[in-house]
Design a protein that fits this description.
alpha+beta, N_Gln_amidohydro_ab_roll_sf, protein-N-terminal asparagine amidohydrolase activity, Prot_N_Gln_amidohydro_ab_roll, globular, six-stranded antiparallel β-sheet
Length: 209
């Protein structure tokens, strides 16, 4: 009896639209579920933002050399393996895909210690199955006042649920009383998922002024 050939997960197999990271990750979760690449229980969607919606990330495709990109929010996928290190899937990063979480923490997240408070990151960690069931976006946040697109939208139809056509702000919000999942400071997240590896969050820090 032949073994079932498992689909390989690479950048090339992923649906990607620039500046629509939340939808890219939704499609990535959908693909992983459909192809049975990993149990959804091992996956969590991470929204990175803060109250000022100014969060620096390093090693981004749209960055320049070792300077960070300042996003209003960014979305990545975390896979926590039972017998292996956790990895991050970030389609906007120049780091490996997937990337070991320790490496991603050290080079992309770095530390809040040298940053002004307005740049301190928070992370909303949402179970993948919850994200697939509840996320909805009509893409209105990507339209200018005159109705034109800030960036071209994905070719597929907007992601909606029976209950909502647009709840993106509930995921971006770092208010623990709003939306789904658990909200962490960067330090809390690293302690929980990088197994208290303080060197990962402290190395190669760069100030943002």
């Amino acid at each position: 009896m032949k073994r079932r050939t498992e689909a390989k997960l690479s950048r090339e197999t992923c649906v990607y639209t620039s500046c629509y990271c939340e939808e890219n990750v939704w499609k990535l979760c959908e693909f992983i579920q459909a192809q049975k690449i990993a149990p959804l229980e091992q996956l969590a969607v991470i929204f990175i933002s803060n109250d000022t919606r100014t969060v620096p990330l390093w090693k981004q495709k749209s960055g320049h050399e070792d300077r960070p990109v300042i996003w209003d929010y960014h979305v990545i996928l975390l896979k926590v393996g039972v017998k292996s290190d956790a990895v991050i899937y970030d389609l906007d990063s120049v780091l490996p895909f997937p990337c070991n979480l320790r490496l991603y923490a050290a080079q992309a997240l770095r530390s809040d210690r040298t940053l002004r408070p307005k740049f301190h990151r928070k992370l909303r960690v949402v179970p993948a199955h919850c994200f697939l069931l509840n996320f909805a976006s009509d893409r209105s946040h990507m339209k200018n006042a005159d109705g034109t697109w800030k960036m071209p939208p994905p070719s597929y139809r907007p992601i909606q649920t029976a209950e909502s056509k647009m709840n993106l702000d509930d995921f971006i919000s770092m208010n623990p009383a709003v939306g789904w999942g658990t909200v962490y400071t960067l330090g809390q997240f690293l302690l929980k998922y990088v197994v208290e590896d303080s060197s990962a969050s402290a190395s190669s820090s760069t100030a943002v002024s």
